[in-house]
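Exercise 7. Given the encoded structure of a 304-residue chain, write a plausible sequence.
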């Protein structure tokens, strides 16, 4: 029995003392002085989970995993646990253990009896690997799963590659959330040609009527500078250059990675850093010709 004493300012109607006691087992609240019962049932304001152990408030084993669109069943299905013990903690007998193992197998098979469930299992398994490879946030993964589910509902997956459409949905989610990941990054990690991913991406934009925001070159700059090994002084000067270019509205219609790379190269030139166009181009995933063209455009427009 667990008793908790509260000094709530409420006095006992019988003895007038201010010492209310709550029994957490029966839910009764009564006076600690005379034992007069104030309430027979008290609503529990604590957490829903219980583990029935000594340190129950530190063990959240019964809360379950949160729901997620990136699971084939959105985390709502129940599973038979792998602990071969009964409710009292005693180990199962040999015959019952065999029966439970068979039930686990059929329970697992019954959760993916439809083609859409099998499709989601394969797609979201690849999505979990992409999350680790590209270091993506949970918000991007949830958005990717949402776009892919919409594509499956409209029948866009039929006759097309599941990894290709998943990569396109992932790139769309990165664009929508402002995460600096290029088509080359996504296609190389999932081992699909860039042309196939871009074709699926255009299909998603057209069929799902997605409106993608323009990528800010400033968000691409830190990544390029880190991969090229540039100093913080170069990054700050390049940030000023990009902000001035945005104010003059000369960045519209230009590749953000190319603009960020050109701003970094221009900053290197102004700060006297010995960095070649080839190093920055490899870090940005663009050609040296693109950097030269954007570099000339920035110099002329900003009068540098």
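Solution.
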């Amino acid at each position: 029995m667990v008793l908790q004493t509260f000094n709530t300012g409420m006095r006992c109607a019988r003895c007038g003392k201010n010492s209310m006691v709550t029994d957490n087992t029966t839910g009764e609240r009564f006076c600690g002085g005379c034992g007069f019962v104030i309430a027979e049932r008290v609503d529990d304001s604590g957490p829903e989970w219980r583990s029935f152990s000594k340190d129950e408030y530190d063990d959240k084993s019964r809360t379950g995993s949160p729901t997620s669109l990136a699971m084939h069943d959105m985390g709502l299905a129940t599973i038979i646990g792998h602990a071969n013990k009964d409710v009292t903690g005693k180990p199962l007998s040999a015959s019952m253990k065999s029966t439970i193992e068979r039930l686990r197998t059929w329970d697992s098979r019954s959760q993916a009896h439809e083609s859409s469930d099998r499709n989601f299992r394969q797609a979201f398994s690849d999505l979990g690997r992409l999350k680790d490879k590209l270091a993506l946030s949970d918000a991007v993964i949830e958005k990717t799963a949402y776009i892919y589910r919409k594509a499956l509902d409209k029948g866009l997956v039929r006759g097309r590659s599941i990894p290709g459409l998943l990569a396109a949905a992932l790139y769309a989610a990165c664009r929508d959330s402002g995460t600096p990941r290029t088509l080359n990054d996504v296609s190389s990690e999932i081992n699909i040609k860039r042309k196939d991913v871009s074709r699926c991406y255009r299909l998603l934009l057209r069929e799902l009527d997605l409106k993608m925001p323009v990528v800010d070159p400033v968000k691409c700059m830190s990544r390029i500078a880190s991969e090229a090994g540039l100093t913080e002084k170069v990054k700050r000067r390049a940030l000023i250059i990009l902000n001035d270019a945005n104010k003059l509205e000369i960045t519209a219609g230009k590749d953000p990675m190319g603009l960020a790379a050109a701003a970094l190269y221009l900053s290197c030139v102004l700060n006297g850093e010995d960095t070649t166009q080839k190093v920055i181009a490899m870090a940005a995933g663009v050609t040296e010709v693109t950097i030269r063209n954007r570099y000339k455009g920035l110099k002329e427009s900003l009068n540098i």
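Remark. The chain has three domains: 1-64, 117-207, 217-302. Students should compare their own answers with the one above.
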